[in-house]
Amino acid sequence: MRRLIEQHEIQQRVHALGTEISNLYRGRDLTVIGALTGCMLFMADLVRAIDVPHRIGVVQASSYRGATTRPGELTVELGLLPDIRGRDVLILDDIFDTGNTMEKLVTALQSREPASVRTVALLVKEGKSEVEMKPDFFGFKIPDAFVVGYGLDYDDDYRHLPFIEALDEADL
Ligand code: IMP
Ligand code: MG
Q1: Which of 2-16, 67-81, 139-153, 157-171 has the lowest mean pLDDT?
Q2: Fewest Cβ atoms closer than 10 Å to its Cβ: which of 85, 104, 119, 147?
């Protein structure tokens, strides 16, 4: 594994994002909605860096790659979503790769009639997007590598690491 982003760099960047986001939503009814499970570490740190009152909630986005389902088919589970009608929503995910997950989340949440929907991703992979949209806020641009840590997993391992590492071919 190769260290890509150190813990202190993440902490600094997340604090700067918190300030930027606070300035935008001051005086508004903000709800931050994280996409499980990758959102957990980023969301826990970011919401503590947002100094305007806000609510938090989660949704689950999964892609099924089993033999019975189309590869990469995405489902969004809104069972845990709090009421967002008329509120400003900030959707948070660990990484924006092809962007299909984020786009699907935006569409799903728009059906609940929020006042606005914006997006934040800790990481954006360069040159991979398959969608028109871009995250409104992001932490770091990274080259096309498979990364783990700070919420991101490989087969559900490594999420707890406080830094980001790239897995080499030999690790996979
Ligand atoms: P997208 O729909 O292609 O943008 O992918 C988004 C989802 O794929 C993320 O929420 C992650 O769960 C997963 N993902 C994409 N790239 C990586 C990676 O490099 N490491 C770990 N998970 C990834
Ligand atoms: Mg994942």
Answers
A1: 67-81
A2: 85
**pLDDT of 73-109, one tens digit each?**
889 999 999 999 999 999 999 999 999 999 999 999 9
Instruction: Starting from the CA of residue 146, give the closest ligand.
Output: 1
Domains with residue ranges and CATH for the chain = 2-171 (3.40.50.2020)
H or E stretch covering 73: strand 73-77
CA distance 166 to 172: 11
Taking only the tens place, the pLDDT of each residue in 16-42 is: 999 999 999 999 999 999 999 999 999
CA of 155 to the centre of ligand 2 (A): 8
Residue nearest to atom 17 of ligand 1 (CA): 146
Look at the chain and count its residues.
172
* Ligand 1 close to Cβ of residue 149 (< 6 A): no
From atom 12 of ligand 1, which residue's Cα is the shortest distance away? 38
State if pTM tops 0.90: yes
Is the N-terminal amide bond of 98 cis, ω within 30° of 0?
Answer: no
